[in-house]
Design a protein that fits this description.
Layout lengths: L1 E5 L6 H8 L18 E7 L2 H7 L6 E3 L1 E7 L14 H9 L3 E8 L14 H31 L4 H17 L12 H6 L10 E8 L9 H13 L2 E5 L1 H8 L3 H11 L5 H12 L2 E7 L3 E8 L4 H8 L1 H5 L1 E7 L1 H7 L2 H6 L4 E3 L10 E6 L2
Parallel strand pairs: 1-4, 1-5, 3-9, 5-6, 6-7
Antiparallel strand pairs: 2-4, 8-9, 10-11, 10-12
Length: 363
């Protein structure tokens, strides 16, 4: 699963990406289209549950969960018509699972805004419009082909035609497809089209150092907009976060304290991106390592086991599961088992966020 970082040029996308991935590559120049190919990076998802587990089970190694991020070049008005190499950039967005849209919520006369003035809601609407136009074009292109196939009596093609028409009717009301309720079969029928406005979105408000909590008027406008569309907002000062990311641990803690931050805002962003992608973690814990494993919300125990190794899913017998609360109460796995708190779960068990597991399987 991966999330794409998008936004207009000069909103701080690449600065944010570099900070998130601790990348040392040069910052983007102060003009559009400086990122031609999407940069990719893997970001750890901070989780204090790992530290709590290792208080009782001391491992040689700790491995946090991670997500993949893609830094996609700035989109401009007219991208759906090819402006600013728009078609190429839009194709990159089609390939990601969720969108992190960076919106500029700071004033700086030295950083040119592509529209001439700072208006974050207008920026959001510009990108949303371009993505809707591109989705409209994709659906209109797909419909005749689906209709031709449906004439042969192909049931799947007939169903696809119905879903395409349903999506077209919705998007023609100037509403993104994420607001359209599609069941699992309908979503599968149009999955290959990479419909961008159907993807979940998280708004990242790039704020000034004087508004780290995101309570200024520009961010409040973004919050109001996001509330209307059911999206979340994370305020981040990309400039400050980039500086923090360059520091060693001691200096980082000092800078956080002086800025009034309990943790880097990037930690909050990584966790929220994880949630937007529909992901959760379970843990394995032993002397060799304590590790967070990434699974989709709703995954079953065999599917979770398969994340470790495909053989675990194929030969799944059962899972032995306990909770972090159990560990903190009884202090060890041995005592959890003795207290009858170690649960035995079978193939139909739906994993819960934070489960600590052992899997038994046949090879």
């Amino acid at each position: 699963m991966e999330a794409g970082i998008v936004g207009l040029p000069n909103v701080g996308k690449s600065t944010l990406f570099n900070a998130l991935t601790s990348s040392k590559q040069a910052q983007s120049a102060n003009y559009p289209f400086c990122t031609i190919e999407p940069n990719e990076g893997v970001v750890s998802v901070p989780d204090d549950r790992l530290k709590r587990i290792t208080k009782y089970i001391v491992p040689k190694k700790i491995v946090p969960a991670a997500i993949k991020l893609v830094d996609i070049a700035g989109i401009v008005k007219g991208a759906s018509e090819g402006q600013g190499l728009g078609n190429k950039f839009l194709s990159h967005i089609r390939e990601v699972d969720a969108i992190l849209q960076v919106v500029r919520c700071f004033e700086d006369p030295d950083v040119i805004h592509v529209a001439g003035s700072v208006n974050p809601v207008s920026d959001i609407e510009t990108i949303e419009l371009e993505l809707m136009i591109a989705d409209l074009q994709a659906l209109e292109t797909a419909l005749p082909k689906a209709e031709r196939t449906a004439k042969s009596g192909d049931k799947e093609a007939k169903f696809r035609v119905d879903v395409i028409k349903k999506c077209l009717a919705h998007i023609q009301t100037d509403q993104p497809l994420r607001k359209l309720a599609l069941d699992e079969n309908e979503a599968k029928a149009v999955a290959s089209f990479g419909l961008m406005t159907a993807k979940k979105v998280l708004y990242v408000a790039n704020v000034d150092e004087n508004d780290l909590e995101g309570r200024g008027p520009l961010v409040m406008k973004v919050r109001e907009f996001a509330a209307q569309v059911g999206a979340a907002v994370v305020p981040v000062c990309a400039k400050l976060e980039a500086e923090i990311a360059e520091l060693d641990e001691a200096d980082r803690a000092e800078m956080l304290a002086s800025s009034g931050l309990a943790e880097p805002a990037l930690a909050v962003l990584a966790r929220e991106a994880y949630r937007v992608l529909g992901l959760q973690s379970y843990f394995t814990a032993g002397e060799q390592e304590v590790r967070a494993w990434t699974i989709p919300v709703g995954a079953t125990a065999p599917q979770a086991a398969g994340v470790i190794h495909t053989d675990f899913e194929k030969g799944f017998i059962r899972a032995e599961i306990y909770t972090l609360d159990d560990l903190e109460t009884y202090k060890s796995e041995k005592d959890i088992r003795a207290a009858g708190k170690l649960r035995i779960e079978g193939k139909s068990y739906v994993m819960q966020d934070g489960d600590i597991c052992h899997f038994l399987f046949n090879t």
